[in-house]
Every structure is written in C-alpha cells, then in structure tokens.
Amino acid sequence: HMDGRAGAGCCWCQQLSAPLSELSVPLAVPYLDEPPTPLHFYRDWVCPNRPCIIRNALQHWPALHKWSLPYLRATVGSTEVSVAVTPDGYADAVRGDRFVMPAELRLPLSSVLDVLEGSAQHPGVLYVQKQCSNLPNELPQLLSDLEPHVPWASEALGKMPDAVNFWLGEAAAVTSLHKDHYENLYCVVSGEKHFLLHPPSDRPFIPYELYTPATYQLTEEGTFEVVDEEAVEKVPWIPLDPLAPDLAQYPGYRRTQALRCTVRAGEMLYLPALWFHHVQQSHGCIAVNFWYDMEYDLKYSYFQLLDSLTKASGLD
Ligand SMILES: O=C(O)CCC(=O)C(=O)O
C-alpha cells in the first residue's frame, strides 16, 4: 500500500488530486435558499462538480405535505413492491471475500409499513430501494404527488432523468460507499438522510478490491444464506467502511477528508456524478431521487485517468 511505497506512488496522485480538492472541495456542503436558475445550476454546481443542498425546491410538491407512513398505507398499502432484505442492513457490501447483494422480496407495501411502525416483525432489515425507476414502475399511484423531473435541472443538463427512484427503509439500512455515473438530485420528503461524501479526486486513497458476487437468500426459518452468483466475473468494490475505516490496512485513506451532511425533509441534495457516497437514514425516511446520466466529458476522462493510474501503480 501507499505508505509502504514511500514517495513514488504519492507524487503523481497528489499532483493530480490535491490541487483539485484544495481548490474546489468545500469544508461543508453549502446551502442554497431557493432553486437555482438552469444557468446558475450549471455554472456554479454541475460544471465544477460541487455538491449543494437546495432548500425550498419541493414546496410545490403535494408529497411534501401529504406523504407519511399512514398516507402510504392508505394510498399504496396493497401494492406489491420489491424490497431489499439483509441480515444487518448492509446492501451491496463486502462480507469476507464476497460482494453480497440483498435478498429481493416482493411484499405489499403495508408489510413494510407494519415493520416500520413496529406492529410486525420480519427477519433482517428492510429497505425499499429498487433503483430502476421504482417510483413510476411500482408505485405509479404516487406520481401525481410530485413532478416527474426537476425542470431547472433538466433544462441545465439538456435531458430528462434516466430513473426516478423511491426510497423507504429502516434506520439500520445503510448504503455502502460507492459512486455512480449520474448527476443525482436527491429529495428527502420525510425524515432525514445522512450522507458521507468524498470527491472523485480522493480516488487514489479509496481502496477497491475484486470480489465474487453473491446474494443473500432468506430461508423458511428466517435465517440468511449467502449464495454465489453463477459464472459471473468478479466485481470491483470498496472494502472500506468510512464510519470505521481500517487505517492499518488502508493507510492511504488518512489522506482523505470526508464531507458529511444531513439532508432534511423538504431539502434536495445535488450529489454530482462520480462523488463517492455512503448513506444512512432516520427510521422510516421517505425519499425520491432523480438520476440524470452524466456527460462523458473531460471530468469523466479525468476520473478514468485517476482510476487507471491508481490501479497501475498498485495503490488499491
Ligand atoms: O439513499 C440511499 O440509501 C442511497 C442513495 C444512493 O446511493 C444514490 O442515490 O445513488
């Protein structure tokens, strides 16, 4: 690892990543008091790839005033949704030498609400988090409570979102550290989400390893088994838990500075493409996010270069 390689490995990655993070990574995620114009959004946030939290952008959504667990029960309680279930709340996480994906159950939303409200028990930790536009696909009855996209963002980005996702889960449900190639507008409707962020320039100090993909399966007895996916390639994933980083194993992570923020009901986080994120939530938090595909531009190329150099020099 890096510290063992003295200067050689550090020199290039510091030259590539330090100026960027020093110049443009803030100490805290800034707030905007109102939605930006498309020009301001693009110029001040998308183009420089900086996160911000936008207030008063969802006021006109009926969802903000209507959505609660009882409202969801009354409107979509009998609708079946896809639910991710894990023994410990960690979906898509490294466990031993495996990359383990959650068991996926189809349950009426009311069963999830029963667990969230404490009137029933279910083995493991539940999280409605299917990331394939599960809002329009699984819960279309809720669509009239919000806008189908974020107009100023669609105008700025010159496209419509690729996916609109609905998130509802228990406090123990955690999304492990990862990055996406999406410009993400993450809207909290009820409760709060806690994000831990790293800019793309931290890539040399964030370890990746290759894991055999596997899936949790829930047995009749309510226990979990880890079942390997058949004949598929290994998956690169981040083994490090940013809440309890193993610095003896990953000393390079010391060089990073995580940016933490809480996104509260009525607020929208602009999470720029390629930023690493780890996410926790309050119990029963309800959120919707819009994923806009990123432009495969110079920012993307910079990240690919950083990624290739990191791999080539064995920093991972
Ligand atoms: O809300 C979460 O748990 C994770 C969100 C996320 O990873 C995303 O929107 O890309």
UniProtKB/TrEMBL annotation:
User: What PROSITE patterns is this protein classified in?
Assistant: JMJC
Which UniProt keyword terms apply here?
Cytoplasm, Disulfide bond, Hydrolase, Iron, Metal-binding, Nucleus, Oxidoreductase
The catalytic activity of this protein is classed by the Enzyme Commission as 1.14.11.63
Cofactor(s) this protein cannot do without:
Fe(2+)
Task: Return the SUPFAM superfamilies for the record.
Answer: Clavaminate synthase-like
Top-rank EC class of the record's enzyme:
oxidoreductase
Organism domain of life: Eukaryota
Task: List the molecular function annotations (GO) for this entry.
Answer: aminopeptidase activity; endopeptidase activity; metal ion binding; monooxygenase activity; peptidyl-lysine 3-dioxygenase activity
Q: Which InterPro entries match?
A: Cupin_8, JmjC_dom, RmlC-like_jellyroll
Compartmental location: Cytoplasm; Nucleus
Q: Which Pfam families match?
A: Cupin_8 (PF13621)
Does the entry feature the keyword Ribonucleoprotein, yes or no?
no
Q: How does it assemble?
A: Homodimer; disulfide-linked. Interacts with DRG1 and DRG2.
Query: By what name is this protein known?
Result: Bifunctional peptidase and (3S)-lysyl hydroxylase JMJD7
Q: Which organism is this protein's natural source?
A: Loxodonta africana
State the organism's lineage: Eukaryota, Metazoa, Chordata, Craniata, Vertebrata
